[in-house]
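Note to self: keep these together.
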Amino acid sequence: MNKFENVTVVKAANIYFDGKVTSRVVEFDNGDVKTLGIMMPGEYRFGTEKKEIMEILSGQVEILLPGEDLWRKIAGGDTFEVPADSAFDIKVMTVTDYCCSYIG
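Structure:
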């Protein structure tokens, strides 16, 4: 899906890590919530409340998911899942455009 229709976008940005990661919340009529954002190169740790499906639209990252010992390379067009109530590490190699879907 290249665009979302009939949605509500929250005007205020989510700003993390001194502005190196930003996103906007997109709310759907059926209650689904996604964020669209940009990550600048760097290393970050994110906590989750709900299960997340992270789609990398463009860019290149490496991720370390809960319970794993090896970093995985993820590039534009790839997705990965993060369990609820956990945390994951991400190394952003290039400016990265992403879409995060919250499940549950």
